[in-house]
Automatic annotation (TrEMBL), chains A, B:
Catalytic reaction annotation: 2 [molybdopterin-synthase sulfur-carrier protein]-C-terminal-Gly-aminoethanethioate + cyclic pyranopterin phosphate + H2O = molybdopterin + 2 [molybdopterin-synthase sulfur-carrier protein]-C-terminal Gly-Gly + 2 H(+)
HAMAP family noted in UniProt: MOC2B
GO cellular component, one term: molybdopterin synthase complex
Role according to the record: Catalytic subunit of the molybdopterin synthase complex, a complex that catalyzes the conversion of precursor Z into molybdopterin. Acts by mediating the incorporation of 2 sulfur atoms from thiocarboxylated MOCS2A into precursor Z to generate a dithiolene group.
Name of the protein in its database record: Molybdopterin synthase catalytic subunit
Pfam families: MoaE
Assembly notes: Heterotetramer; composed of 2 small (MOCS2A) and 2 large (MOCS2B) subunits.
Keyword Metal-binding among UniProt keywords: no
Keywords: Cytoplasm, Molybdenum cofactor biosynthesis, Transferase
Length: 196, 196
C-alpha cells in the first residue's frame, strides 16, 4: 500500500526523447519558477513557454478556504512521462519540465509549473497546452478543497477517473487504481512503478 | 525625428479593458520574469501563461555573434496596446503584460516576456499565443543580428513590414513609417504617440 506519507516526492527523470531533456518533479515544497525556466533554457532555443496553475480562492462560485493536492505518485509519474513522450513526438522540443506541488497550496501559489523550450515558438506553446490538458484529464493527482459554506473536503473531479472518487480516502482510491490497472493493463506497460 | 536614443524606454500602462490589468514595458534592462508573473497573479486566477522569447545562437543555419533590438517606441506601444485589447475581447483575462527588451540581448536571455492570467487555463494560453503572433507580425521592433560568417548587421524580417527594411538604418525606417502612417491612417487613430 502506498500512501501520501511514503511516496517519493522528488523525482528527477532525464530521458532522451529525440534528444529532448525531460524532468518530472512531485514535491511538497513551493515550486521555483526561475529554476525550472533556467533548466529549459538553451542557446539553441528561441522560445520558452510556461503554464503556471495557481490556487484560486473560489471554485464553482464557492469560496475556497483551503486546497490540497494528493497524488498516486508512481502512476502519476508514469502518466506524465507518457504525455511528455507524446508531446515530443508531435513537436520538436528541447526540454519539457513538469513540476507538481502536493499537500497544502496557499492561494495564488503555484500547484503546477509546465515549461517547454524549443527553437521556434509554436512548438513550445502547443506542447505546454497539450501537456496541461492531458495531465488534467489523465494523471491521478487529486485536488481537495474545503469550501466556506460546507466545511467539508471535496475532491475535485477534473481528473476524469472512471470511478467515483468523491468521499473516498486516498488509500481507497489507490487501492482501487492498483486493482483496476492490474486487471486492465499488461505488466510491461506499467513497468516497475507499481512494484516500488 | 525619434531615434533609439530618445525614446522613452519604460512605459507602464494601466488600462481597464473589461476590468483587465495591462502593462507594457520597453526597456534596455534585463527582463525580470518573477516580477511580471507576480504582477499577473491574483486570488481569482487559476492560470498564468507565459511566453519567453530568448536569444538563440543561430538563425537560418548561421551562427549569431550578437543580437540587438530596436523599436519605434510610440508606435510599438500603440500596436501592442491594440493587440492586448483584441485579446481581451476574445478571452476574459485578468492581466496581460508585455515586456520587450531593447538593445543588446545576450544569448539565452529574454528579449520578450508575455504574461497573461485568467480564471481558467484556456483563456490565458490562447491569449499568450495570440499576442506573440500578432506582436511579431505587426509591431515595429527590429531584430538585428551579426552572423559569424558575414560580420555585418542584418535586420530580421520577421516583422512583415510592407517596405524593405533590409540595409536601412533605424532612422530611415522610422522616417518611412511616419510618412506612411501619416498618409494612411486618420490622426485620431494614431493618437498622441507620433506627437511626443
Amino acid at each position: 500500500m502506498i500512501t501520501s506519507k511514503n511516496i517519493h516526492i522528488n523525482l528527477w527523470i532525464n530521458k532522451d526523447y529525440h534528444h529532448m531533456k525531460s524532468h518530472i518533479t512531485l514535491t511538497y515544497e513551493p515550486l521555483n519558477l526561475d529554476y525550472y525556466v533556467s533548466q529549459a533554457s538553451d542557446p539553441s532555443c528561441g522560445a520558452i513557454s510556461v503554464f503556471i496553475g495557481t490556487t484560486r480562492d473560489n471554485f464553482d462560485g464557492k469560496r475556497v478556504v483551503r486546497l490540497e493536492y494528493e497524488a498516486y505518485a508512481p502512476m502519476a509519474e508514469r502518466k506524465i512521462n507518457k504525455i511528455i513522450e507524446e508531446a515530443s513526438k508531435l513537436w520538436p522540443l528541447h526540454s519539457a519540465i513538469v513540476a507538481h506541488r502536493l499537500g497544502h497550496v496557499p492561494t495564488t501559489e503555484a500547484s503546477i509549473i509546465i515549461v517547454c523550450s524549443s527553437s521556434h515558438r509554436t512548438e513550445s506553446l502547443m506542447a505546454v497546452s497539450y501537456i496541461i490538458d492531458h495531465l488534467k484529464a489523465e494523471v491521478p493527482i487529486w485536488k481537495k478543497e474545503i469550501y466556506e459554506d460546507s466545511g467539508a473536503w471535496k475532491a475535485n473531479k477534473e481528473w476524469r477517473h472512471p470511478m467515483d472518487i468523491q468521499n473516498r480516502t486516498l488509500a481507497q482510491n489507490i487501492e482501487n487504481l492498483e486493482s483496476e490497472y492490474k486487471d486492465r493493463e499488461k505488466v510491461d506497460d506499467i513497468g516497475p512503478s507499481l512494484n516500488r
